[in-house]
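Pasting two entries for a bug report.
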Amino acid sequence: MFIMDGVCYAGSFQENIKVTEAKPLVGRMLLLTFSTGEKRLFDTNLLKGSAFSVLDDEKVFRNPSIFHGVVTWDNGNVDVAPETLYHDSIAYECEDACQV
């Protein structure tokens, strides 16, 4: 846990980590590329609360945007901090020939 600008966050602080690419996959999974160069898989089904129910709409889920390193959907009405995406995702390693 850490506090930044008066806000308490779960996990550990990842200085200046940003999402550089977000590719939607089947089952509401995201293949994310971070500013560290790492690729990680994140399950958006882990996002709870009514704010994230819009992701149940396949058309919305399939169209993420990245705004200043933050993944957003629905014209910026829904977003997830890159630190959360990093902390709650798993490392993804694949040979160049691998397709997702």
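Entry 2 (this is the one that rendered wrong in the viewer):
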Amino acid sequence: MKHVEQTRSGSWQYRRRVPKDVSGVITKREFKRKLGDSQREALAAYPQYHAQVEREIEAAKKRIAGAVAASGPGASEREAYAEALRRRADLVAKGATADALEIAADSLADSFPQEGYEPIGAPPVDRHTVNLLRLGPERYRPPEPTLGDALRLYLKEHLKADSPETDSRVTGLATRVVEAAIAAIGRDPLLTAITREEARAVRDHMLDRVKATGRGAGGKVSAATVSRELAILSAVVNFAKVEFGMPDTMPNPFSRLPVARVAKGQGQKASEKRDPLPPAVLTKTRARVLANAAPELALIWRMVEGTGCRLAEVTGLRVEDVVTDGDFPHIRIEPNALRTLKTTSSRRRVPLVGDALKAAQEALKLARAGVMLFPTYGRKRGSDAASAALMKHLRQVSADEKHVIHSLRHNMKDRLILAEVSSLDQNLILGHALGGVGDRVYGGDVAKLRQTTKALRKALGLPGGETDIEREAAALRAVV
């Protein structure tokens, strides 16, 4: 146990000097606490207190980083105000009286040329600090938020940008979209000052952009792309309105902004943007993947095809999520540290039958160092890598843009429909919303697995997929 020592009296204590880089925030010299009279007691108490100390040090580092950022040239007025407010709070916490605050304000203001009581040329943090020390937060209110302030709040509070589980692509897209809007407007505008005309200028700037990479590079971006980006801008502004306490009557200039150019595929349902793979394409692509792809990739294809799961749901499986013994082999689709789930209803148990079961059994025999079922792809953005690799094989068979790896889910959906599987069982297998039916229709997990296993076997034409009534009807037809 780090930072633990035994005292002369025989007890055990945690003792750790405060790091120099945070000593300006954590003013005590060291962290010190008795953990127990015995080693057993110390072992039990150590994890909680050590974690508490680590959190306190990390919070201090973030505060220092925030103070540096708020003092930098790129800081917004609102960030500078927040840092000034923290400075004042520190003085108050140390017992500073109103007179002491006034003296501190005068001392800081004297460091700069003054015009009346206002320091001239002072950095924003110092200027706000002087005013807050003299007037207090009740009389000296924070500056109005800008679009840049709205972005920073959206990233921190809504997208949880500081969390290791947050997809960097999502935060990166939001950042790029808002920064592009600020560039198009020519300034970081106050939220209350953005006009509809400026919003249209942002839209036109987006429509005039040229694709830099990917298919169709060199052409204009699609209206569908611009519509999505405007939706992000609208969401950022709406979130800021609530969190900054702005009036409901304040219009959102990016809301329902029409996009003139008609986008390819715009107005289609999500199900119409991807087609199931035709039998010939499916057969050829499967044969190509199994013959040429790396073993992990081939197993992933087989499990996606045989379960109808999303690609990320399969690449993100842990070994403990796979159950291949018992009456109802299955995989548990649950969020974990490497991947979230698209919806709440995506959390489910999917039966393993036929070739998918064999693939899962083979996957469990792979050599691995960690806990992921597919070590190569069980990582951040591993599903993207798997998709790109599988798409290379698919594109050798079909150039149709509606034929993608996600099409395998549509193939499974078609199989379930043709097998006359109930909508409830389809949704339980594919992880779609249950449509108000409820999650306890069949009772517990075993009952659901019994029913969905039967349904999946029926859809794939495997033994055990018929119901008792269907078997009796078949026997009767045979007699007749």
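Dev reply: Rendering is fixed now. As a check, the viewer should reflect this: The chain is about 50% helix and 5% strand.
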